[in-house]
């Protein structure tokens, strides 16, 4: 801890890790000290060095040579890589905020999950997926009002915003997102799909949410619409470009919501809202962990 901040680092120097770097550099609760990668010539590591960060180009082995440099580690690699890194970080007593679909730790969707009072006791939290961050809050807003028999989401992202990590994790994306729709969103059954759209110019991230209700009447209709508006505002508190593409529609006990996400443009183009929403959610989560650690005097 320095200057009232908790030291943190990023594992992964690709698009997600680099975008997250710019967000962490602005944080008043986290001090970004390092970036870990495996490619000496990666653009992410080069930019990290330009910003005065310590860089390691030999993966987690490099970080292990100087583990005191960061107490919270943001994993922005792949599900397979985090599955290998997670026990190492746990053994060191570090906190891991996992931006891959590995789901080693419990799901974390800030708009829904950050009321957890014991967050400083969790050694690993999982940010689900970009689709999960965009759609789980919507399903939760509905299930807070009435039971959801079935939820299905389709996340459509620009092909240009899907890097190697995203493409390698497609199966994990669908499985992890569907599970989060139940475990966090409250749906009884669920399904998730992702579409990589090659359109030019690239489209913004778009998410379609379909939810079948266990019961329905006019009172429930009004309560759901109010709950959706409140949830949208909550997510916008940390993802400025999050909005309804069209007004939500409820017909015969079926809710349809279309959500669009425009990126903040920190490192990537604004059409890459799929990356912006997960890095923004990770930043929010990391800051809450840091704040909790500082308030309770629990510092690694």
From TrEMBL:
Entry's family note: Belongs to the acetaldehyde dehydrogenase family.
Gene Ontology MF annotations: acetaldehyde dehydrogenase (acetylating) activity
Protein name (database record): Acetaldehyde dehydrogenase
Domain Semialdehyde dehydrogenase NAD-binding: 7-119
Signal sequence segment: none
InterPro entries on file: Acetaldehyde_dehydrogenase, Acetylaldehyde_DH_C, NAD(P)-bd_dom_sf, Semialdehyde_DH_NAD-bd
Binding site for NAD(+): 13-16, 161-169, 274
Catalytic activity: acetaldehyde + NAD(+) + CoA = acetyl-CoA + NADH + H(+)
Keywords carried by this UniProt record: Aromatic hydrocarbons catabolism, NAD, Oxidoreductase
Enzyme class: oxidoreductase
Domain of life: Bacteria
Residue positions of the active site: 130 (acyl-thioester intermediate)
Entries under Pfam families matching the protein: AcetDehyd-dimer, Semialdhyde_dh
Gene3D superfamilies referenced in this protein's UniProt entry, alphabetically: Dihydrodipicolinate Reductase, domain 2, NAD(P)-binding Rossmann-like Domain
Enzyme Commission code: 1.2.1.10
SUPFAM superfamilies the record matches: Glyceraldehyde-3-phosphate dehydrogenase-like, C-terminal domain, NAD(P)-binding Rossmann-fold domains
């Amino acid at each position: 801890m320095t200057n009232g901040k908790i030291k943190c680092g990023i594992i992964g120097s690709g698009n997600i890790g680099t975008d997250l770097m710019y967000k962490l550099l602005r944080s008043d609760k986290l001090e970004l000290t390092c970036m870990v990668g495996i490619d000496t010539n990666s653009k992410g590591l080069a930019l990290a060095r330009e910003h005065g960060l310590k860089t390691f180009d030999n993966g987690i082995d490099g970080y292990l040579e100087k583990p005191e440099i960061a107490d919270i580690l943001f994993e922005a690699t792949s599900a397979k890589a985090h599955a290998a890194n997670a026990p190492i970080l746990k053994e060191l007593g570090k906190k891991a905020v996992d931006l891959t679909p590995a789901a080693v730790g419990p799901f974390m969707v800030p708009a829904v999950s950050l009321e957890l009072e014991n967050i400083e006791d969790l050694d690993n939290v999982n940010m689900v997926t970009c689709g999960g961050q965009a759609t789980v809050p919507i399903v939760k807003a509905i299930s807070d009002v009435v039971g959801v028999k079935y939820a299905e989401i389709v996340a459509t992202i620009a092909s240009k915003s899907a890097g190697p990590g995203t493409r390698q994790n497609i199966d994990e994306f669908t499985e992890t997102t569907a599970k989060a729709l139940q475990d966090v969103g409250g749906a009884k059954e669920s399904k998730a799909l992702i579409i990589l759209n090659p359109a030019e110019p690239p489209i913004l991230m778009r998410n379609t949410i379909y939810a079948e209700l266990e019961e329905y009447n006019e009172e429930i209709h009004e309560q759901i619409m109010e709950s959706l508006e409140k949830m949208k505002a909550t997510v916008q508190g940390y993802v400025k470009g999050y909005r309804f593409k069209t007004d939500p529609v409820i017909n015969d006990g079926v809710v349809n919501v279309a959500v669009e996400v425009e990126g903040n443009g920190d490192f990537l183009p604004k059409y890459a809202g799929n990356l912006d929403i997960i890095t923004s959610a990770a930043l929010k989560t990391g800051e809450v962990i840091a704040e909790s650690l500082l308030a309770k005097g629990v510092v690694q």
